[in-house]
Design a protein that fits this description.
This protein is mostly beta strands and 303 residues long. The chain has two domains: 11-61, no CATH class; 72-234, Glucose Permease (Domain IIA). Helix content is 7%, strand content 37%. It has three helices and 25 strands. The chain has helices spanning 11-14, 39-47, 55-61, and strands spanning 21-25, 31-35, 72-73, 84-87, 93-94, 105-111, 124-125, 130-137, 142-146, 149-154, 165-166, 171-173, 180-182, 185-187, 194-200, 205-208, 211-214, 220-222, 225-227, 232-234, 249-252, 268-271, 273-280, 283-289, 293-300. The strands form seven sheets. Strands 4, 5, 6, 8, 9, 10, 11, 15 and 20 form a nine-stranded antiparallel sheet that branches. It has a five-stranded mixed sheet with strand order 3-16-17-18-19, with no helix packed on it. Bound molecules: zinc ion. The site of zinc ion has 5 residues, from strand 6.
């Protein structure tokens, strides 16, 4: 597609990705094939022995069985819990690979591997469970798609092949440090720095770990907090520091003292002076003394 007169071309700009093709040879030596997304593909896929592809892997490889996402989502940041990576200066930018996925966006997350400073070590983790559906390998670095996420700038390892299933949080591989450039991606960074170019469909926003990324202004928001480029983000935080943990009674949006939400409010309600018991004619009234006194419960007094 779109070839120049000089016939210089590359797979990314001029090729088109039509999806996985399954080939099957029957007892008579005849080959049949099916392209992903067709009913025939689902049939052939179901015939693949479990030792080669698990049921879960089959399900995530088959577009007819895959759960459609209404908005872009990941369950976790793709690096080790309790460590941080830095949101890249480009903010929201194009994912590329337009012959594979159309109109996708991406963000960069960087680290220098300085775990002493709390920075993430060089291990990329699966942000959501799924099977590899596409691999770009130019001999310099690797890019892969797993479901509705793209991970670009990996170093080669033997697990990076189509059909390989990763559970959530499982190690995918290491990222390529330093500067490089080839057809599956390029980076300009210090020799000890590495980053993932993390892509997702352009649905207006992207959600992960309680954060909402606006694809229009490139800002991350959680509760009352807003973060832009060059901010560091910690993975696997179940109790974000912005959630209070002392002072009266606190109602959190989520279980586990977690006030993250994407509703644009603080995600918690705090009542400073808790409860007064008022007894009137055999009835005990519990009053929470916040900004305005509110009757929260009425009990029958036990004699
Ligand atoms: Zn990038």
């Amino acid at each position: 597609m779109g070839l120049d007169a000089d016939l210089h071309w590359n797979l990314l700009d001029n090729g088109s990705w039509f999806g996985l093709v399954l080939l099957h040879q029957d007892e008579n030596g005849r080959w049949t094939s099916a392209v992903e997304g067709t009913f025939r593909f689902s049939l052939l896929l179901s015939d693949v022995p479990r030792e080669i592809l698990s049921d879960t892997a089959k399900q995530t490889l088959d577009p007819l069985q895959r759960r459609p996402l209404s908005s872009s989502d990941a369950n976790r940041f793709p690096w080790q819990s309790g460590t941080q990576m830095q949101y890249g200066v480009l903010g929201v930018h194009d994912n590329g690979f337009s012959s594979v996925v159309s109109g996708w966006k991406a963000v960069d997350f960087l680290s220098d591997g300085n775990t002493g400073a709390g920075h993430a070590p060089n291990w990329l983790l699966a942000a959501i469970a799924g099977s590899i559906g596409y691999v770009c390998n130019d001999g310099t670095s690797i890019a892969i798609r797993i479901g509705d996420l793209f991970y670009t700038h990996l170093l080669y390892n033997g697990n990076l092949y189509s059909g390989k299933y990763f559970s959530e949080g499982e190690e995918i591989g290491q990222l390529k440090p330093g500067s490089f450039s080839n057809s599956c991606g390029y980076a300009s960074q210090g020799s000890n720095w590495f980053h993932v170019h993390w892509g997702f469909p352009n649905t207006g926003s992207f959600h992960v770990e309680g954060w909402t990324l606006s694809l229009s202004d490139g800002k991350w928001r959680r509760g009352g907090e807003t973060r832009g480029t060059l901010s560091w983000f910690q993975a696997g935080g179940t109790s974000p520091p912005s959630c209070p943990t002392s002072g009266g009674v606190i109602l959190y949006w989520n279980a586990g003292y977690n006030c993250s939400n994407d509703k644009g409010n603080s995600g918690f309600v705090q009542v400073n002076v808790v409860v007064e018991l008022v007894s009137r004619e055999g009835i005990v009234v519990a009053v929470a003394a916040g900004p305005t006194a509110t009757v929260v419960s009425v009990f029958e007094k036990l004699d």
